[in-house]
Fold each of these.
Amino acid sequence: MPHTREILETLDTADLAMLDALQNDGRLSVVALSRQINLSPTPCTLRMRKLEQDGIISGYHARLNPAALGQALMVFVTVSLKATDEATLKSFNEAVRPVKQVLECHMVGGGFDYLLKIRVRDMGEYRDILGGVIGALPMVESTHSYFVMEEVKESHVLPIPRPKAKERRP
């Protein structure tokens, strides 16, 4: 896959408008999208396919309401490992990936090694995940939990870069 800067240089104003529209409403029909970005449906479809093939559009998803599904408790957990050699990092990554309650896992630099975003029903389920899964991993030295009291802002919408976009391609 080309470098990020190279990808940005291939995008024109229509591509950027398409990305902006689709990330705000992934259910837009091709006809509605083509009207919104002033492009006919066939070229619009071809551009969408190219953006998907290039990995710029990585998927389409429905956003679900966690509280409506009984998963109102969100917890951020910092994890420090006993060692950070490649084998230990790989083992931790493999152990965390299948845990469905772990929505996000980020290796970070700083005062700890990983930051996890966990979504569960209640404190009992959280204890099961922390004590029975995360804390039970042999490479884990310590964890710290931060319980979300209020979600002030949550968004999956990325700011669309505005490089010097080329004129529209046919």
Note: The longest helix spans residues 41-53.
Amino acid sequence: DAAFARAAAGDWRFAIGVVKRGKLFYRFIMAGPRGTQQLDLLNRQVVGSFRALSQHEASSLRPLCVRIATVAAGDTVAKMAARMQGVSRPRELFLTLNGLDAGAQLRVGQLVKLIGE
């Protein structure tokens, strides 16, 4: 069972999908600035691919945590991003998670967030 809706707030548009599995409801929200194409299509693809995990899949999951690390001499964005575990596009996530621009330089002693087990 699934339901779909659209919403808008300011310059943002949202495609919302809700899936019911047993007594649980799962909500998916796709967001983009006004004029973003295919939000509805993307939402329907995501909702359509939703399924319960097998017992084997569920038992093999490990939670990811945000950890704080201190930048040491010689550390770069690339080196710190490489320490992230269980994520796709670690460089982009590292930059976003730490509020850094693409050309950012890290300072020795700076505290940064990393994702890992």
Note: The first strand starts at residue 2 and ends at 9.
Amino acid sequence: KKFWEVASQYRVFVTFNGRGFDVPFLMVRSAVYGIRPTKNLMAGRYLYQQHADAIHVDLLDQLSFQGAMRRKGSLHLWSRAFGIKSPKSEGITGDDVSLLFKKKRFLDIERYNVGDLRATKELYLKWETYMNV
């Protein structure tokens, strides 16, 4: 069966560099606050090693063939390569979020995050359709 046939029966957690930052950060912060995660999203770097109840597709891992490519690229680079609108196209980058937060420009942060989510979703669909063999 293709991955999407199996994954459609379960929840799939899709990230871009989630294994390198987001998930470890969330797991450590959870531990700091005494919260035990219910799913281990770091188990099995390769998709076939993962449990069906906690599938984590890190697009950076997938697109760089688990680091086999010398240059991995950013979400901005991969979005542009696949003709997807980059979250940076509105002039805000992840580096700007802290300053925007201090200035209470929450709608700008929201727009940036929504752009990031849309780009990640579109990139996932491209990977799923053309590269997930």
Note: The first helix runs from residue 3 to 7.
